[in-house]
Every structure is written in C-alpha cells, then in structure tokens.
Write a structure and sequence with these properties.
The complex is a heterodimer of chains A (310) and B (401). Chain A is mostly helical. Chain A has 12 helices and 2 strands; from the N terminus they run H-H-H-H-E-E-H-H-H-H-H-H-H-H. Chain A has a single domain (3-309), classed as Orthogonal Bundle (ABC transporter involved in vitamin B12 uptake, BtuC), CATH 1.10.3470. Chain A has helices at 3-33, 41-57, 63-84, 93-115, 138-160, 162-172, 174-179, 184-206, 216-231, 235-263, 281-297, 301-309; strands spanning 128-131, 134-137. In chain A, strands 1-2 form a two-stranded antiparallel ribbon. Chain B is an all-alpha fold. Chain B has one domain (2-370). Chain B has 16 helices and 5 strands. Chain B has helices spanning 2-25, 28-54, 61-83, 87-110, 115-134, 164-167, 193-214, 216-226, 228-233, 238-264, 274-287, 293-312, 323-338, 340-355, 361-370, 372-396, and strands at 142-143, 146-147, 155-156, 173-174, 183-184. In chain B, the strands form 2 sheets. Chain B has a 3-stranded antiparallel beta sheet. Chain B has a two-stranded antiparallel ribbon with strand order 4-5. In chain B, helix 3 (61-83) packs antiparallel against helix 4 (87-110), helix 3 (61-83) packs parallel to helix 5 and helix 11 (274-287) crosses helix 14. Classes of the chains: A mainly alpha (310), B mainly alpha (401). Chain A binds chain B through residues 37, 85, 88-89, 93-95, 97-99, 101-110, 112-113, 116, 215, 218-219, 221-222, 225-226, 229, 264, 266, 278-279, 281, 284-285, 288, 292-293, 295-296, 299, and chain B through 57, 104, 107-108, 110-113, 115-117, 119-121, 123-125, 127-128, 131-132, 135, 138, 140, 274-275, 278, 281, 285, 332, 335-336, 339, 342-343, 345-351, 353-354, 357.
C-alpha cells in the first residue's frame, strides 16, 4: 500500500469514529446516564437537519447560523416531549421505549407532512483537499473538530459545573438530591433537553454530507444505541472508546468490501471515489456483528470491563 | 365443566364462524385482504408469545418474517419451474427463520443481555437486513432464476418469464405422491384455498402455542417473565428456555413471512423496514400483550382502519375555487391522510402506553364473560343470521336488504 492510501484510510477511520461519536453523544446523556431508551433520538437528528434546511431555504440564514440554531430548536422539542410524555413514565422502562417509538413515528409523519418525502441536499461551502492521488472533503475534518469540541464540552459541563454536579446527583439518587434542595423534575427535564439538543447539533453537523429526508434518523438510531451499549457504564469515555473500536472496524470493512467490488469490475470511473455512506453496508453489518460478539464477551461493555479489572 | 369452558368456547365460535364464512359471504377481494391481515396477525402472535409469556421484547420479529419470505421466494422461484411444487421452499423458509432466531438468541441470552438491549439488538438486526435487502439491486444478487432486485423486490428472470406469472413468487403449491396434478393455494373467484390455508395455519399455530405454554417450557417461561432471578435460583437455566421460546417465535414469524410471500407472490425490503416492525408492536399493544389472541385482534382492527383510510383518502379531492386558505387546508389534509398509517400508529402507541395498558382484548373478553348469557342467546344467533344472510345473498342472489 502506498503512503497516500494509508493516509486516506486513516482519514476514513477518523471520519467513521467522528460520525459514531456525534451519533452517540446525545444518546450517551439520555440513555447512558438517564437510562431512558429514547427511540425518538433518530428523529432528533432529523429535526436538527431539517432546522438547518428550513433556516437556509425559507429564512435565508447563513449556513453556520442555521446550524447554530438547530440544537436550541431540538432541545425545545425534547423538553416539550419530556414534559408531556416521558415524565409520566419514569420507572417503566419498557413503556418509555414504546412511547418514544410512537413519538418517533409521529415526528416522522409530521416532518413528512410539512416538508414532503423527498430527499433534499444542503449546499456546501468547503472544497476538497488533495491526499496524494485522492481527494478528501475538508468539511469532514471540520466535523472531527466539532465532535471533539462537543465531547470536551459535555465532559466539562458534567464534571466541573454546578449544573453538571446537580444533574449527576439527580441521576445517581433522585430522593437524596431532592432532599438536598435540587429540583429533580427540573434537572431531568434539562438533562433530557441537553441530550436532545446534542442530537440536534449532530443532525445539523451531518446535514451537509447526507441526504436530508424525514426517515434519515432511522439509518442512524441503531448505530447510536450500539455505540452507547458497547461503551458501558462509564458513559462519556466508554462511548469514545467504543466509537473508536466500532468506527475502526466499520471503516476498514467498508474499505475492504469496496476493494472487492472494485476488482469485480463494478466500480466506475477509476480512480474510485471513496464513499462513506450508502454503499458501506458491509461495514455496518460488520459493526453489528462485532458489537454483538463483543457484548457476548464483555457483557458490561468496554468501560465495564475496565472497571471489573480494577 | 361446561360452565367454566363456556366463555372460551363462545369466543372461539364468535371468531371462527365469521372467519370461516368470509369467502362465501363476501367478494374474493375481501377474503384476499382479510388473509393478509391474518398473516400480520400470525406475526403479531409470534411477538405476543415471546413478549407476553416470556417477557422478551423483540422489535425485530419482522427480520424473521422477511427472511422467511425471501428464502421461500428464492427457493420457490427455482423449484416451481422444475418440480411444480414448493415443498422444499416451505421447509427452507422455516429453517432459515428459526436458525437466524436461534443464532441471534444465543448471543443475546447467553450474553445475558438485559431486556431493553434485546429490543435494541433485534431492531438493529431488522434494520441491517433492510439495508442489505435494499443494496441487492445489482446483477450479482441472483440465485438461479430468483433476482433479489433491491428496492423493487424479488422476482424471477429467464426465458420463461415472458409469462407474467413466472415473474412472481409461486403460491404455496403441493404435489404429493398420488395426486394427479399440483394443487395451488390461491384466492380468487374459483378458489378460496389460500384463505383457508392461512386461517388453518393461524388456528394450528394458536392451538400449538397454547399447548406449548402448558408444557414445562411454557411454565418456566412465564416464571422467567414474573421473576427471572427466582426461577434461576430454583435451578433452571433460564437462558436455554428463553432461547427455545425465542427460536419458536422466530419460526412462527418466518411461517407468516412465507405465507405473505405466497399470498402477495412478492416480497420487497419494506418487510424489514421500521414501519412494518412498528406496526407489529402496535398490533400486539392494541390487541393486548397478555393474551395470545391479542396481536391477532390488533392486526385485524388496524388493518381494517388503514385500508378504510386508504380507500377514502384518494377520493377526498376538493373543488378548485376555495381560495388560498381552502387550498392550504385541502393540501394539508391530503398530506396528513397520506401519512395516516404512520401518524395513526404513533398516536396509538403513545395513547395506549399512557392510557390503556392491557389493550382491547382482555376488557372485551371480560365483557363477554359477564354477559355470556346474552352473548349465547343474542350475539351468536345474530352473527349466524347475518353471515347466513350474506352467504345466501352472495351465492344465490337471495337478498332481503
């Protein structure tokens, strides 16, 4: 393998990890910390992407402003859903799952009613750069930076701020937190809103590189859950490590399966474009199989394994 | 003895008599549509069995349904040309679905993955299969004469596909030794054999499942649902029982899938899709997860509702001269009605979880039990009279009203 091929594969792995981190970040808060199996999480991505679309198409905002707006809009939706539905169902995990699935279907239906069922693209400002013989999108590097920024931001928020301490106290022991004067319903609401907002940010960040369509959340929800589940009980670091492992596998297998297709003569025109999306389903299957086998070996996830070792 | 059995016998009569009469009492179209609801009902029954009785919440019964349908289609298309029957396709579909369920179940239950994760993994399974089925559009995805066809669904190819019937997945076709010619289970003007096949399979599976729940397997499964730790501490290996029931549920779902492929003579990736997976859970929730029959009842209710909406919606066009607001309202209504299945499913899910936990079947059954005297002497004769009249009307043009 020539150096530029190695470089491009490294970039692909990085991009795959970035996407998994972005997908899992909001869910790590809602599912990893709060233990709410929120199946409407995928529709929070969709809502974020459609906020960007509506912002640039109907309100004629610049792209960066629309992207900045998306997390706040989606956090609002999340808070409304928490107040109306999820609040009534704490302590009934299965019912929460079913209700959020209903919400997910309702949101898909409502977004389709509003925007139509067509796939829409978001025009895209940044160009490509050259890696030897290959071209690579600059925006994907920006995505990695944004993902890293969000990850650090969430870590700092939960680790070092008063809000983070209260939120962690509320999740760890609601009764005790409430006895200490923390308004636990408010903390649950805000934490859920934060998770929804992070998902909205993810949708906004991913909007320029994927087709924006009402059912797009469905494509990502499974990978997001798998990443958090494999991550295990130490939520943020576990998610980061499982995203790294799964992203590595996914990118390599996608790349490998692309190679086999290429030699079979189904790749046009040479040199082949590297696609990280539609045709990468071998990578996704490998991700699922790897995750299921990993959970068979480490039932408490990657970070559960560290803990058990200590 | 008769007193205790009477509500069960009564409800069996109230359900079975109309279902038996439908092909005689209505047009073939009705029997055809009802058959597919019963197939969905069978799928829902497989979920009701593992969810209601073993507490395994699978979002991915559609994975086994779809595998059953695709394998039946792939083998059936190849087999029908040479042997004129589909025996091996039936066996193959069933084996494939149970095997997939057994493998996935092994990793889930022996990995001691808790209930919520089971839902997520089964859901991921069906979505991955969806992605896989969609991406099989190319020329390399052909088994014999069966093309996977990606989004367009499975169909046959080759020189004999000049005839449209050879494009399609064959109906269930039997050619046992001693039969003069192969027998096809179809639903049309001449024959309702396909309908009775579906009904027969549903009744058979229901009876088998009821029997299964009375055996050691069923009793341990119910124990696991109630308190897994206690069952385990009594010395039962809960994983084995969960796995066995999950595999049986997968086999039933695969059976439903095969019936579906044979019924519609077609299968496409939508059978793995999220909307279909959601509708299965909705059927069970609406009908009630505490009885086996619940999913079946839910499927027929929702099926009736959606087909009613689908019949009404296209004809609800409005006049052109209604002004901008009228046009806006008309357009909004049209779009809402078009998305109605999703919106209805979502609303039913949220509504039932918040308001009506047990679904509709248990309250209905309690009602029947309380007023069983009335039901025996009024409801049952009324049902018999109604269907008797419909049959007379349909078969001999003897109509009173």
């Amino acid at each position: 393998m020539s150096p530029d091929t190695i470089a491009i594969i490294t970039l692909e792995v990085l991009n795959s990890i970035t996407i998994l981190v972005l997908l899992a970040l909001g869910l790590a808060v809602i599912f990893g910390m709060m233990r709410i199996v929120n199946l409407a999480q995928g529709e929070f991505f969709t809502a974020g992407a459609f906020t960007v679309l509506a912002g640039i198409r109907y309100a004629h905002l610049p792209l960066w402003l629309a992207m900045l707006l998306a997390p706040f809009v989606v956090a609002g939706i999340g808070i409304a859903i928490e107040r109306l539905v999820i609040r009534r169902l704490y302590g009934r995990p299965l019912d929460v799952m079913l209700a959020t699935w209903g919400i997910s279907l309702l949101l898909i239906g409502l977004i389709t009613v509003t925007f139509g069922a067509v796939t829409q693209g978001i025009p895209f400002a940044l160009g490509n750069f050259q890696v030897g013989r290959y071209q690579y999108a600059q925006y994907r590097i920006v995505m990695t930076a944004l993902a890293a920024g969000l990850m650090v931001g969430v870590y700092v928020l939960f680790r070092y701020t008063a809000f983070g301490r209260r939120a962690r106290a509320t999740i760890a022991n609601p009764d005790m937190a409430s006895a200490m004067g923390i308004s636990t319903p408010r903390m649950f609401m805000l934490t859920f809103g934060l998770g929804a907002g992070l998902a909205g940010a993810t949708g906004a960040i991913m909007a320029p590189i994927v087709g924006v369509v009402p059912t797009m959340g469905v494509l990502y929800i499974a990978r997001a859950f798998i990443t958090v589940v494999v991550g295990g009980p130490v939520v943020l670091l576990g998610t980061l490590s499982s995203a790294s492992a799964l992203g590595f596998i996914e990118a390599l297998i996608s790349r490998f399966s692309l190679f086999t297709i290429q030699t079979a003569g189904h790749c046009a025109p040479p040199p082949c474009q590297i696609s990280i999306g539609g045709s990468a389903f071998f990578g996704q299957i490998a991700l699922l199989v790897f995750a299921v086998v990993l959970l068979r070996l480490l039932p408490r996830g990657i970070s559960g394994f560290w803990r058990d070792r200590q | 003895m008769r007193r205790t059995a009477s509500p069960q016998v009564l409800s069996a009569l109230l359900i079975l008599l109309p279902l038996l009469a439908v092909p005689w009492a209505f047009r073939p179209y009705t029997a055809n549509v009802l058959a597919v609801y019963m197939i969905y009902g069978l799928l829902a029954m497989s979920l009701g069995l593992i969810w209601g009785y073993a507490g395994i919440m699978s979002f991915g019964q559609t994975a086994f349904f779809g595998i059953g349908a695709y394998v039946y289609g792939a083998i059936g298309l190849n087999l029908i040309r040479t042997t004129h029957q589909t025996h091996a396709a039936l066996v193959g579909g069933l084996v494939a679905a149970s095997l997939l369920a057994a493998i996935v179940g092994y990793f889930m239950f022996f990995g001691r993955i808790s209930d919520v994760y089971v839902s997520i993994i089964t859901m991921a399974l069906t979505l991955v299969l969806f992605a896989f089925a969609v991406s099989t559009g190319g020329d390399e995805w052909v088994i014999g004469v069966a093309r996977f066809g990606g989004f367009n669904g499975m169909f046959g190819q080759g020189e004999s596909s000049q005839n449209i019937a050879n494009f399609q997945i064959p109906p269930v076709t039997l050619w046992l030794p001693g039969m003069a010619e192969p027998f096809e289970f179809k639903i049309n003007r001449e024959s309702a054999a396909g309908y009775y096949l579906v009904l027969g399979v549903c009744v058979g599976v229901y009876v088998l499942a009821q029997w299964l729940l009375r055996t050691r397997l069923g009793r341990v499964a119910i124990g696991i649902r109630e308190n897994e730790a206690r069952v385990a501490s009594l010395g039962y290996d809960t994983r084995v029982y969960q796995l066995a029931l999950f595999a049986i549920g997968g086999a039933i779902a695969g059976l439903a899938g095969m019936l579906f492929a044979a019924w519609g003579r077609f299968v496409n990736p939508d059978r793995f899709g999220l909307a279909f997976a959601a509708s299965t859970v909705v059927y069970v929730l609406l009908g009630g997860r505490t009885t086996l029959l619940g999913g079946f009842v839910g499927a027929v209710i929702i099926g009736y509702l959606t087909s009613y909406l689908a019949e009404v919606a296209p004809f609800s066009a409005t006049a052109a001269d209604v002004g901008p607001w009228g046009a806006f309202v008309a357009e909004a209504t049209r779009r809402i009605v078009r998305e109605a299945p999703l919106l209805v499913q979502g609303a039913v899910l949220v509504g039932i979880v918040l308001l009506l936990e047990d679904g509709v079947t248990p309250p209905l059954f309690r009602l029947l039990q309380r007023y069983r005297r009335w039901a025996w002497w009024l409801l049952l004769p009324a049902v018999i009279l109604y269907f008797g009249h419909r049959i007379a009307c349909q078969q001999t043009d003897f109509c009173l009203f």
